[in-house]
Amino acid sequence: MGSSDLNLKKSWHPSTFKNQERVWKEEQKRKEEERKLEQLKKELAEERQLQELQQMQEESGAKQKSNKLDWMYAGPNASMNGSNDNSMEDFLLGKKSVDELLRAKQRQEVVS
């Protein structure tokens, strides 16, 4: 007689349309975020490669560096040295503490 599944009427059941829709939306958000992260990684790699090429040109003497407004249009990571490229990323990801970053910066200032 009552062959319908009573679990389909429960709000927590995974087979309900509402819960399936919620899962699908979360999966779409995750995919979109991953796509954005990949795009940002590609852009960052291109910027680093461009900076390396410009530095190689300057070192070889083929191109003179212009110190006018280049710093204004450069990205936020452009001012860092090669050894500190990922230090801020490591800090944001929780791999490094603030103390280590400050000590490293003080050592660089003392050496300079």
From TrEMBL:
Residues 1-23, 54-89 are annotated as: Disordered. Residues 11-47 form the CBF1-interacting co-repressor CIR N-terminal domain. Keywords: Coiled coil, mRNA processing, mRNA splicing, Nucleus, Spliceosome. It comes from the Eukaryota. It is found in: Nucleus. Signal peptide: none annotated. Pfam families: Cir_N, CWC25. One of its GO terms (cellular component) is U2-type spliceosomal complex. InterPro entries: CIR_N_dom, CWC25, CWC25_splicing_factor. GO terms for biological process: mRNA splicing, via spliceosome. PANTHER family: CELL CYCLE CONTROL PROTEIN CWF25, PRE-MRNA-SPLICING FACTOR CWC25 HOMOLOG. Belongs to the CWC25 family. This is CBF1-interacting co-repressor CIR N-terminal domain-containing protein.
